[in-house]
Amino acid sequence: MSDSFDLVVIGAGPGGYVCAIRAAQLGMKVACVEKRATLGGTCLNVGCIPSKALLHASELYAEANGHLAEMGIVARDVSVDVAKMMAFKDKGVKGNTDGVAFLFKKNKVEPVHGTARIAAPGKVEVSLAAGGTRVLEARNIVVATGSDVMPLPGVEIDETRIVSSTGALELKEVPGHLVVVGAGIIGLELGSVWGRLGSKVTVVEFLDRITPGIDAEVAKTFQRILKKQGFDFRLGTKVTGIDKTRKHLKVTVEPAQGGDAEVIEADIALVCIGRRPYTQGLGLADLGVALDDRGRIRTDRGFKTSVDGIYAIGDAIAGPMLAHKAEDEGVAIAELLAGRAGHVNYGVIPGVIYTAPEVAYVGRSEEELKDAGIAYRVGKFPFTANGRAKVNLQTDGFVKILADATTDRILGVHIIGTDAGNMIAEAAVAMEFGASAEDVARTCHAHPTLTEAVKEAALAVDGRALHM
Ligand SMILES: Cc1cc2nc3c(=O)[nH]c(=O)nc-3n(C[C@H](O)[C@H](O)[C@H](O)COP(=O)(O)OP(=O)(O)OC[C@H]3O[C@@H](n4cnc5c(N)ncnc54)[C@H](O)[C@@H]3O)c2cc1C
Fold it and tell me: What pTM was estimated for this model as a whole?
């Protein structure tokens, strides 16, 4: 086994493993170091994949107790076996992580299991999982070490009663009362899982709104729908401590701006206040690799750090902490290192919240356009007026298209509704090609599909929606 490589990638998450595969496709000799026992990073092991497995299963359960009877389907004695649901989720995770191992083999990427440290530019020292040390010589190094859970000061996460997202994906039983700290995407997704399975869910959020950063009108509708599903929101409220010395947790909260404290009793507290870049132990400070004020590795547009031969991508650098953003950066840096053109269009990175209904968005929100002083027109179409949504009893939500007031170019698309996560792909392609709302309005959309609501919203930009 030679220890000299064209490229050594540190971290086998969606950023790292995709980078390694693309670089190998382009003829490079590649090794990918991963300290976890399985490949796929946060996303496949404790993130996107397990959370979506539980969201899917719990949504089917909710549906069995929801609309099925209305459709003439009699489902008796539907109940949940948490252990089996967890086994189903674990099987899905294994299928995905094994898939990455297969792809490495197919593309001749060498996986190295252990913890990497950059001893010097061109030199990666791996403390091997199997014991011992191995030094890899590398013409180039890509750091793709991802992110980790952001801790809440004064609260110790034990992953049994006070859990992060990782512990919330492993609960042994349905908690009576789940308190979610933080009304961001991950907290609301995991709150939905356990809420559907029977938990009372209280969400405590410091800000006076949920899902900060998302179009405010969508966020408001989203909050109203979640409330209807049983979520209790305590906005403008902060958690100051969690006492776990008794049978029930005692979560102390107080108004964000100060005021009287109050105690909420809970069975499980899920701390979900964000994620922070993970760069510990890499030796970056000794090498002089610069970080920004949020601990992210500073890079230029070509993913180059402040040290020659060392690049960084994914959650460890600036930008949205999303798997597909990390993947696209992985491809881009591999292509740049091969002397080709590689770039990521940060203006067109879709985001999806996989609740029911889903929330999906790409481009700018109304607030961002207002802040930037850009004049825009709005086209909106509700799913209550879409034939397929009506017949499927899935009428919550709407499509909103924001187009430049002068050129009609689409600047942002925001969807709340069933299957929004798939529908947003059309908007992303349209924006990538610089489409106008008129272009989408004149594109034939199959009937009856939910996507007709996208076309209608595009027509609505020009005030000529047909079914409203
Ligand atoms: C519960 C949850 C749900 C999520 N859902 C979604 C979703 O639906 N869609 C979406 O787009 N994003 C989702 N995300 C975010 C997504 O998982 C991340 O954006 C993505 O994994 C980032 O990819 P990455 O390659 O940068 O890093 P990671 O996936 O974090 O991978 C980094 C890898 O590097 C390894 N590593 C770190 N340091 C070293 C070292 N020194 N030596 C060797 N290995 C090292 C780590 O063990 C890790 O496996 C979710 C996250 C969570 C927690």
Answer: 0.97
Alpha-carbon distance values, 230 to 169, 200, 259 (Å): 20, 7, 27
**Binding pocket residue ranges, ligand 1, CB within 6 Å:** 10-16, 33-36, 41-43, 47-48, 51, 115-116, 144-147, 165, 186, 278, 281-282, 314-316, 321-324, 326, 354
What is the rounded distance in angstroms from the CA atom of residue 74 to the CA atom of residue 70? 9
Q: Is 467 a catalytic residue?
A: no
pLDDT tens digits, one per residue of 267-301: 999 999 999 999 999 999 999 999 999 999 999 99
CB–CB of 211/222 below 8 Å? yes
Ligand 1 atom index nearest CA of 316:
26
Cα 261 versus chain centre, distance = 33
**Which residue puts its alpha carbon closest to atom 34 of ligand 1?**
11
In whole angstroms, give the CA distance from residue 327 to residue 334: 11
Judge whether 207 and 236 are in contact, CB under 8 Å: yes
Distance between CA atoms of residues 458 and 436, nearest Å:
9
Kindly report whether the peptide bond that precedes residue 277 is cis, defined as omega within 30 degrees of 0: no
Alpha-carbon distances of 393 from 71, 189, 265, 384, 456, rounded to whole Å: 9, 22, 36, 9, 19
